[in-house]
Structure formats: structure tokens, C-alpha cells
Design brief:
With 52 residues, the protein is mainly beta. It contains no helices and 2 strands. Helices cover 0% and strands 31% of the residues. The chain has a two-stranded antiparallel ribbon with strand order 1-2.
Length: 52
């Protein structure tokens, strides 16, 4: 899969508690997006699709 960086939503250290991320796709083009989460012990990437 090829692509480009669309946006950096958050790039800062947070406390070790639950966090939520809400994505508003109103200004996004149709397509497949990847969202990566990284902690000291985990790196996870989630895929989501924007359809109109």
C-alpha cells in the first residue's frame, strides 16, 4: 500500500490512562486511511475506510 502522511493528530506524551480519539471525516476524501498508535511497549496500526 502506498500513500502519504495526511495529518499528525497528536504527538505528545500522555499519562497512563484510557484515551479516546474521535475522527471527523467530513473534510476527508474517500479512501483507506491508516492510524498508528505507539506507546513505550506497543505499536498498533488501525485501518479505516471513508465512504460517501
Amino acid at each position: 500500500m502506498q500513500g502519504e502522511l495526511v495529518d499528525v493528530v497528536l504527538e505528545e506524551n500522555k499519562l497512563k490512562v484510557n484515551h479516546f480519539l474521535y475522527f471527523n471525516e467530513d473534510n476527508s476524501k474517500m479512501g483507506t486511511y491508516l492510524c498508528s498508535f505507539k506507546t513505550e511497549t506497543l505499536k498498533e496500526t488501525k485501518r479505516f475506510v471513508v465512504m460517501r
